Structures are given as structure tokens and as C-alpha cells.
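Progress note, sequence design subtask.
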């Protein structure tokens, strides 16, 4: 039976230039591999060592990229290793099978959202009415499933984020602040539900997971074993749980360490 490795991507395995956290002397910085280009510019990286580890992991386990990115945003990424059979996009809203969204899964997700939480339009209206144009740069929706803002962090009022979280909680939504983005996501829209579906389809008897943000917490809790880096929302809250290991590394070297841990675990079973 296969081992499933469901890992978040941004700030877990791959990193923008701003998130690399290269605090060592320049001469000791790791060699980097660009894995995403957007509008003709390099956008996301991992270390060359991490690229080799990911290739080996893809050969020995069922690697499932698991992201809040839309399908279009995910498809910009060119990860090393064998093409994943499964990928989870839009925080679980789309389950890709050989690159194509599974219609039955997406329909089930939409039914749950309609039954269990306030509609996206209500959340969009609230964001437009309450977010201050002084610090909002973009209003966006993703796959008609959730909404997010791109903000200037240094101008953002933390009290507003807290108030938004309380408002969303009463409507079946959750709020996550990740870098320059504030996400408002329906509670039933989870990475863990999609991971369980992959496990059901493949008969996997062991699930491993990694992630750094509040939107990854359900994934880490649902897996048999999980890892989080020393940065991100979960680290800032000192979040941990049984079976979840908090690593000290930050930035792109955390991605390398996570892949070492995943591969070691797969090989030792």
C-alpha cells in the first residue's frame, strides 16, 4: 500500500525571494533552483538539495502537492520529480487527477459549502465594506470558493483582522493571515478532506503531511505524522499537536529539512 505525503507548497516546500530567510554569510548560502516563473520573472525557489530529496520522495511515496493556490496558480509551478498523480488545489476545493479536476469531488465540496456556511457573496461584500483602501492592494476571489486580500502589512490594523475573524466565525468561515494575504475560507473547505479522499482511493495505510499556516492545521491533525517549520502562523502561535513535529529551521532551509524528515520516515517504515 502506498504512503501518502500531502505537503503544502508556499513557505513549506517552495519560497519566494522575500521568504528565503538566507541569514548565513553569502558565501555559505545554498544553491537555489527556480520552480516557478510568473510574467517572465522567477518567483519561487527551493534548494538544489531539496530538489533532489523531492525527486527521491516522489519515487518512493505518493507525493500530493496540497495548496490553497488556484489551479491556474498551481500549474505555474514546475516541481522536480515525477508528475504527481494527485494534487489538491483551492484548499481542497479541487482534487486534480493527472492534472484534471475531479468533477464528482468538486460537486461534493460545493454541496457542503451551500449547506454549512454563509455564501461567498456575503463575505465579499463584508470585505469590500470594511477593509481600508489605505492598506488593501487587491480584492480577489479564488475558484468561486473563497476570498482573499493582498495588503500592505506595515499599514494593516491587527484589530481589523481579529474583528474579521470573529465575524467570519459566526458564519462558518475562518480567517488566515499569510504574508501579504488575508484569506477568508469556508470551514468545510479543507485540505484534510481531500487528503482523506486520496487515501480512500489509493488504499494508503500511512499519511504524512507538512504545512506552516492556520489553513494547514487540519491537514497536520488528519495525517498520521506531520511537520511544521519554524516560521509561519503556526510557529507564531507555538501551535503543536500529538504526532506533529515543530522544526526549528526557518525559510528555504526549513523546506529542505522537511523533505529530509519525510523521506527518512518513508524509508524507515
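Output:
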Amino acid at each position: 500500500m502506498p504512503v501518502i505525503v500531502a505537503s503544502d507548497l508556499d513557505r513549506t516546500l517552495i519560497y519566494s525571494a522575500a521568504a528565503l530567510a538566507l541569514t548565513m554569510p553569502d558565501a555559505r548560502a545554498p544553491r537555489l533552483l527556480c520552480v516557478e516563473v510568473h510574467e517572465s520573472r522567477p518567483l519561487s525557489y527551493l534548494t538544489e538539495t531539496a530538489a533532489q530529496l523531492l525527486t527521491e520522495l516522489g519515487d518512493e511515496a505518493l507525493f500530493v502537492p496540497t495548496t490553497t493556490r488556484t489551479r491556474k496558480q498551481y500549474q505555474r509551478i514546475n516541481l522536480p520529480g515525477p508528475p504527481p498523480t494527485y494534487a489538491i488545489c483551492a484548499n481542497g476545493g479541487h482534487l486534480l487527477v493527472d492534472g484534471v479536476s475531479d468533477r464528482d469531488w468538486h460537486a461534493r465540496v460545493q454541496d457542503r459549502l451551500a449547506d454549512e456556511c454563509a455564501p461567498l457573496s456575503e463575505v465579499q461584500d463584508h470585505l469590500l465594506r470594511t477593509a481600508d483602501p489605505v492598506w488593501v492592494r487587491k480584492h480577489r476571489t479564488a475558484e468561486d470558493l473563497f476570498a482573499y486580500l493582498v495588503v500592505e502589512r506595515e499599514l494593516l490594523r491587527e484589530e481589523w483582522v481579529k474583528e474579521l475573524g470573529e465575524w467570519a466565525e459566526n458564519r462558518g468561515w475562518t480567517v488566515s493571515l499569510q504574508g501579504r494575504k488575508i484569506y477568508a475560507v469556508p470551514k468545510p473547505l479543507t485540505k484534510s478532506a481531500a487528503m482523506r479522499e486520496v487515501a480512500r482511493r489509493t488504499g494508503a495505510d500511512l499519511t504524512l503531511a507538512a504545512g506552516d499556516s492556520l489553513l494547514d492545521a487540519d491537514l497536520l491533525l488528519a495525517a498520521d505524522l506531520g511537520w511544521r517549520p519554524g516560521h509561519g502562523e503556526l510557529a507564531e502561535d507555538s501551535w503543536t499537536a500529538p504526532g506533529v513535529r515543530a522544526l526549528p529551521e526557518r525559510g528555504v532551509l526549513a523546506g529542505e529539512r522537511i523533505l529530509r524528515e519525510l523521506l527518512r520516515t518513508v524509508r524507515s517504515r
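The longest helix spans residues 252-268. Work on this subtask will continue into the next period as scheduled.
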